[in-house]
Specification:
By secondary structure, the protein is α+β, with helices and mostly antiparallel strands. The chain contains four helices and seven strands. Helix 1 crosses helix 3, helix 1 packs antiparallel against helix 4 and helix 3 packs across helix 4.
Length: 154
């Protein structure tokens, strides 16, 4: 299982720490989203709830790291961007990005108090909407330096 801790640093870049299933670790800073859920945290909640094992967090668990390349967050294996690896399978990541995009308006609405209907995904969608609301509330209430820790089961 993958253990992930998101640290809120008000007024500066936030940070994520990852302990992979194989015992290795990684981490990266990311631009603050203020009170809105960080994009990578959205991925974790959505991918876990929907059983997406080959999305962003599945790649991270498989040894892919996040690094700044040309001042842009980039998935890398070794020092090489994953997009430059002809053998890299990015289909799961692309699927995850599409699904997370569908849930972003809902989550942003939870952050600013406006109501957006969650994407239609039946009972799983209702459970996911509840998890996102909870994560949003917890993130908003974090003081500087406090964190949220979650587990992803690849």
């Amino acid at each position: 299982m993958l253990r992930v801790t998101f640290v809120r640093k008000r007024g500066q870049r936030d940070r994520v720490y990852v302990q992979r299933e194989d015992g290795s670790s990684t981490g990266w800073d990311f631009p603050t989203y203020g009170d809105a859920l960080p994009h990578d945290l959205m991925h974790l909640v959505v991918e876990d709830a929907l059983g997406m094992r080959h999305g962003f967090w599945g790649l991270v668990d498989a040894g892919v790291d996040v690094a700044l390349v040309a001042n842009e967050a980039t998935l890398v294996r070794g020092a090489k961007p994953l997009t430059e690896d002809p053998g890299a399978d990015l289909e799961g990541l692309l699927d995850a990005e599409r699904v997370v995009a569908d849930w972003t308006a809902f989550a942003r609405g939870s952050a600013d108090g406006t109501e957006h209907a969650p994407p239609d995904a039946g009972q799983v969608g209702e459970a996911l909407a509840s998890r996102l609301r909870t994560a949003q509330r917890e993130w908003r209430e974090l003081a500087d330096g406090e964190s949220i820790s979650l587990i992803f089961n690849p």
